[in-house]
């Protein structure tokens, strides 16, 4: 562990939906990362699988020397029911997320890693008014403009539009939206990944990036002019590029992150390359936030077969990003 890393506070890991696998994969993740990536779980110890070795802590700092999974207690009340959300748990799931944010803002935690939530359970049980984790975190951060990145060791992708029908993508794309995504990604690559001059590849919307207008004019009319403007500011941008030739190994070696126009254009390549090890990262927040790239997995909850690989990768990446922000703070003499 580097000297810079040694000064960092541990990561706050939220328990997520108790009926899912969040509590089940926390201990295996701790065992895999012990001595390398310090973190603590915010949740109810009663939700941990029977026989889990843990230590209850009263301060995040206690997690730095813990020999077993450190748990900052947050009582949820009713017993956990694997695979079946309990309405009375919803408010506590929300409160744990807010608590993790508060600990990160205060400097007691260096980053947040969030286990999956179940949005319908939160809406039904507590009137949760946000589409998901990301929007809630952006609200807690004061309304930050945020961007979703999916990352693994071989690839980082950022979709401009996310969970909308493919037929609605062209209308949802605009120069303003694309510019915000590119700028947020560019700034995050510098601040959170320590890349001083990020190389960003931008996909076209249409097959063959429109093929000179033969397959669509979005690239000519909207994407290319924006990229030219941003290049004039000094950004290292390539594109618009044909998406079908962007993701083989030789192409990936030429950029640090890829901006894609819609959900599947971004997520199919990364899930093909590393299905179990992908990490969801929220860019643009004033704090680091990562999450495993899977859901609550109600169908296997309570069976002891959940794979912790994505959570392990998410915690590793959160620590790397926190280190990068720490080094930025050290070099500037101020907190990032």
Automatic annotation (TrEMBL):
Belongs to the PdxA family. Pathway: Cofactor biosynthesis; pyridoxine 5'-phosphate biosynthesis; pyridoxine 5'-phosphate from D-erythrose 4-phosphate: step 4/5. The active site is located at the dimer interface. Substrate binds at residues 133-134, 271, 280, 289. A divalent metal cation binds at residues 163, 208, 263. Catalyzes the NAD(P)-dependent oxidation of 4-(phosphooxy)-L-threonine (HTP) into 2-amino-3-oxo-4-(phosphooxy)butyric acid which spontaneously decarboxylates to form 3-amino-2-oxopropyl phosphate (AHAP). The lineage of its organism: Bacteria, Pseudomonadati, Pseudomonadota, Alphaproteobacteria, Rhodobacterales. Keywords: Cobalt, Cytoplasm, Magnesium, Metal-binding, NAD, NADP, Oxidoreductase, Pyridoxine biosynthesis, Zinc. GO terms for molecular function: 4-hydroxythreonine-4-phosphate dehydrogenase activity. Binds 1 divalent metal cation per subunit. Can use ions such as Zn(2+), Mg(2+) or Co(2+). It comes from Aliiroseovarius salicola. InterPro entries: PdxA, PdxA_fam. Homodimer. It is found in: Cytoplasm. It catalyses: 4-(phosphooxy)-L-threonine + NAD(+) = 3-amino-2-oxopropyl phosphate + CO2 + NADH. Its cofactor is Zn(2+); Mg(2+); Co(2+). This is 4-hydroxythreonine-4-phosphate dehydrogenase. HAMAP family: PdxA (MF_00536). It is an enzyme of class 1 (oxidoreductase). Its EC number is 1.1.1.262.
């Amino acid at each position: 562990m580097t000297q810079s890393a040694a000064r960092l506070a541990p990561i706050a890991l939220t328990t997520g939906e108790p009926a899912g696998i969040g509590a089940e994969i926390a201990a295996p993740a701790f065992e895999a990362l012990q001595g390398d990536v310090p973190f603590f779980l915010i949740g109810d110890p009663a939700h941990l699988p029977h026989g889990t070795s843990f230590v209850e802590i009263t301060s995040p700092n206690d997690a730095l020397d813990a020999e077993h999974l450190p748990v900052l207690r947050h009582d949820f009340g009713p017993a956990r029911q694997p695979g079946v959300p309990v309405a009375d748990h919803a408010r506590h799931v929300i409160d744990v997320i807010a608590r993790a944010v508060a600990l990160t803002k205060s400097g007691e935690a260096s980053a947040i890693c969030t286990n999956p939530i179940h949005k319908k359970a939160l809406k039904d049980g507590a009137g949760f008014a946000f589409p998901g984790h990301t929007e809630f975190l952006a609200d807690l951060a004061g309304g930050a403009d945020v961007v979703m990145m999916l990352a693994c060791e071989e690839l980082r992708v950022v979709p401009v539009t996310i969970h909308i029908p493919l037929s609605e993508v062209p209308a949802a794309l605009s120069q303003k939206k694309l510019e915000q995504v590119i700028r947020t990604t560019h700034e995050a690559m510098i601040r959170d990944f320590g890349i001083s001059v990020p190389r960003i590849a931008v996909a076209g919307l249409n097959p063959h990036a429109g093929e000179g207008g033969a397959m669509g004019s979005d690239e000519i009319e909207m994407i290319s002019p924006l990229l030219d403007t941003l290049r004039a500011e000094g950004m290292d941008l390539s594109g618009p590029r044909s998406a079908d030739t962007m993701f083989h190994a030789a192409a990936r070696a030429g950029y640090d992150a890829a901006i894609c126009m819609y959900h599947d254009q971004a997520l199919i390549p990364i899930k093909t390359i590393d299905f179990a090890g992908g990490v969801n990262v929220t860019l643009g927040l004033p704090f680091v936030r990562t999450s495993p790239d899977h859901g609550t997995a109600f169908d296997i909850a309570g069976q002891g077969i959940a794979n912790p690989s994505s959570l392990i990768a998410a915690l590793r990446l959160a620590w790397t990003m926190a280190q990068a922000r720490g080094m930025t703070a050290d070099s500037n003499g101020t907190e990032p």
